[in-house]
Amino acid sequence: MNQTILHTAEDLLNARGLDHLTLPHLTEKLGSEPPFTDDSALRAALVEKLFTEHPFTPSRSSLAEHLRETAAGNRRIMLGCRDGARLVSEYFARSTAAMAVFANSLSFLTGAGFGRHEAALVLDTLYSYISGFVATEQIKYGFPRSRESQHDREEHFRKATELIASGARAMKVRSGDA
What we know:
This protein is mostly helical and 178 residues long. The chain has one domain: Tetracycline Repressor, domain 2 (Orthogonal Bundle). 74% of the residues lie in helices and 0% in strands. The chain is built from eight helices and no strands. The protein has helices at 3-16, 23-30, 39-53, 63-79, 84-91, 96-111, 116-141, 147-174. Helix 4 (63-79) crosses helix 5 (84-91) and helix 4 (63-79) runs antiparallel to helix 8. It is globular.
């Protein structure tokens, strides 16, 4: 895929928002028709680009550390562009790179003794929290975020991620897997 097309798509997203990241708008910006079948294919390719250009591999040292780094990495990617939470939430499953991060976490959790269903529940909870938190940030503080809003939000995000990790540990204890 021509990276210039995807960089132009990202510029369009950042300038006008997700609702304007469409084939007609991109065609107008490029001056030629991009090689996508529809808006969904364009948006999925952009999510793939974001996860490929900003890779992260969460620690496998502890449950809390792994979930914290997974949350932080996904949040960084979402905050990197306007409407990033909406974009990533909607097209995450169509990105090989994004799904590789999810599969890595699923593998870590099952290796740590969670059943596959429980591990998926932990990740679903975490990803739902990340998406909601970032969507709220992007609505409340805009894009790009102001420096003043960042410190308090970082601390709040960190504490909530720890709360999710605590809940995951408690769920594992209740199921008798501890």
